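Worked example 3 (structure in, sequence out).
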C-alpha cells in the first residue's frame, strides 16, 4: 500500500481544524498572545503549518487567529462570541 504523505498531512490538518471548529471552547481560552503560542494543540498540526494571532495584548477579549496549511486556512475571530471558519484558498 502506498501512502501519499502530503494527503495524509492535509487530512491531519483538516481533522484538527474540524475539532477546533466543532468545539472552540476547548481550544480558545487565552489571556495573552503568549498563551496561544504555548497551546499544546498547536504541536498536533502537521509540519509546515503557519499561524498568526493578533489582539491578545494585556488580556484583550477580542482576538483573531489564522492557521494555514497548504491551501487551507482556519480563521478564528473571537469577541463576545467566537466564529471559526475553514476555507480553501488559492
Amino acid at each position: 500500500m502506498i501512502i501519499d504523505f502530503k494527503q495524509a498531512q492535509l487530512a491531519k490538518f483538516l481533522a484538527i481544524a474540524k475539532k477546533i471548529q466543532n468545539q472552540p471552547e476547548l481550544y480558545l481560552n487565552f489571556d495573552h498572545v503568549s498563551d496561544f503560542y504555548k497551546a499544546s494543540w498547536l504541536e498536533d498540526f502537521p509540519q509546515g503549518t503557519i499561524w498568526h494571532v493578533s489582539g491578545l495584548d494585556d488580556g484583550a477579549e477580542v482576538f483573531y487567529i489564522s492557521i494555514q496549511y497548504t491551501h487551507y486556512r482556519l480563521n478564528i475571530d473571537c469577541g463576545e462570541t467566537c466564529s471559526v471558519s475553514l476555507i480553501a484558498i488559492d
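Notes: The radius of gyration is 14 Å. The chain has a mean pLDDT of 89.
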